[in-house]
């Protein structure tokens, strides 16, 4: 038997690049009528000229948690699960992540925060709009585009920003699943010879920077 160090990531790939990109095309085709209403619903809590309150931040985060559950079933299980045996386990992890978001939201609201630093909200908007466009510039077809609320990469990236403005001591529990999925996705894209793996790693780095540098809501109370 060959030694384990002689294997590469491509030896563990269970599908062809064409089969992988076809999944995104099928997902968008199946839910094409819900794409724009869903995007508007998910982004609405972050867009306003008024101060971004903790209540509105919590509402937007709860919508993203619901989007995680939707993506876990419709894409990770029903589509990726057909070509990768580990996807049901990932789906359970994403569902747990969604429940943790709701738990951390509740803990934050019990602390009676007043307002939220808006910079994290702008990062979510930038990800929702810029990430799909960057993918197209790197060679992805328009009918295979990443879409917030329909595909896991972008949806989980946006949830990675949620801890940036939460005062809860439990907010760090929201990091492992998006990070694990992001690294898995980057490895998959690298194996498929897609330049998008660099985009994924860059987006992960920016989101982590936001979590560490953007001031949580609890420290903004009373200013």
Strand percent estimate: under 5%
Indicate the radius of gyration in whole angstroms: 18 Å
Q: How many domains in all?
A: 1
Order of helices and strands: HHHHHHHH
What about the largest sheet?
A: none
Low-pLDDT runs of 5+ residues are 218-223
The beta-strand count equals: 0
Helix content: 55-70%
* Shape summary: globular
Distance between the termini: 66 Å
- Distinct helical segment count: 8
In terms of structural class, how would the helical and strand content be classed? mainly alpha
Query: For the residues shown, what is the average pLDDT?
Result: 85
Transmembrane segments: 30-48, 60-78, 90-110, 122-139, 173-191, 197-214
Organism: Pseudomarimonas arenosa
Protein name: MFS transporter permease
Keywords: Membrane, Transmembrane, Transmembrane helix
Notes on the structure:
With 223 residues, the protein is mainly alpha-helical. The chain has one domain. It has helices spanning 17-30, 35-43, 54-77, 87-110, 119-137, 152-161, 176-191, 196-213. α5 (119-137) runs antiparallel to α8 and α7 (176-191) packs antiparallel against α8. The chain starts with 16 loop residues before the first helix and ends in a 10-residue tail after the last helix.
Task: Give a quick rundown of the structure.
With 223 residues, the chain is mainly α. Helix content is 60%, strand content 0%.
Which key phrases capture this entry?
single chain, 223 residues, membrane
What is this structure's SSE topology?
Blueprint: H1 17-30, H2 35-43, H3 54-77, H4 87-110, H5 119-137, H6 152-161, H7 176-191, H8 196-213
